[in-house]
TrEMBL record:
F(1)F(0) ATP synthase produces ATP from ADP in the presence of a proton or sodium gradient. F-type ATPases consist of two structural domains, F(1) containing the extramembraneous catalytic core and F(0) containing the membrane proton channel, linked together by a central stalk and a peripheral stalk. During catalysis, ATP synthesis in the catalytic domain of F(1) is coupled via a rotary mechanism of the central stalk subunits to proton translocation. It comes from the Bacteria. One of its GO terms (molecular function) is proton-transporting ATP synthase activity, rotational mechanism. This is ATP synthase subunit b. Keywords: ATP synthesis, Cell membrane, CF(0), Coiled coil, Hydrogen ion transport, Ion transport, Membrane, Transmembrane, Transmembrane helix, Transport. The gene is atpF. The keyword Ligase does not apply. Residues 47-122 form a coiled coil. It comes from Pseudothauera lacus.
Length: 157
């Protein structure tokens, strides 16, 4: 065999193999590599977007927590003011009830004292009449007795 013919045959086979590879083998490989590169780029973009969304969500969470704390503080302050107002109202109501009870007790005591004075006057008048009757040893007229008691009550008041 001739060396030149072998080299030419190998060169022709190499070019046919190169053409076949570029025409039928290389496009699917390149397509797979391009798809893989696109998937990787999409994944990286999604990861960057997720990072940005996470940072935004964290900022929102921090802001919402701050707002919630402020709202809770405001609500607590309002509740404390309302509680203090209710305590003051209860104290004022208790003082009013105590004052009313004292007034009622004093009025009742005054009325009881007045009734006791009236009863005492009647008893004193009855004792005075009984004493006078014993002294005189005779009974006084009932009408005169009633008149005397009425006069005595008027004088004692």
């Amino acid at each position: 065999m001739n060396l030149n013919a072998t080299l030419i045959a190998q060169l022709v086979v190499f070019f046919i193999l190169g053409w076949f590879t570029m025409k039928f083998v290389w496009p699917p490989i390149m397509k797979s590599l391009d798809e893989r590169a696109k998937k990787i780029a999409d994944g990286l973009a999604a990861a960057d977007k997720a990072k940005a969304d996470l940072a935004l969500a964290e900022k929102k969470v921090v802001e919402e927590l701050r707002k919630a704390r402020e709202s809770a503080g405001d609500t607590r302050a309002v509740a404390e003011r309302q509680a203090a107002g209710l305590v003051e109202e209860a104290r004022a109501e208790a003082a009013r009830i105590i004052a009313k009870a004292r007034e009622d007790a004093e009025a009742e005591a005054g009325a009881a004292a007045q009734r006791a004075k009236e009863a005492l006057r009647e008893n004193v008048a009855a004792l005075a009449v009984a004493g006078a009757e014993r002294i005189l040893r005779k009974e006084i007229n009932a009408q005169a007795h009633a008149d005397l008691l009425a006069n005595l009550k008027q004088e004692l008041q």
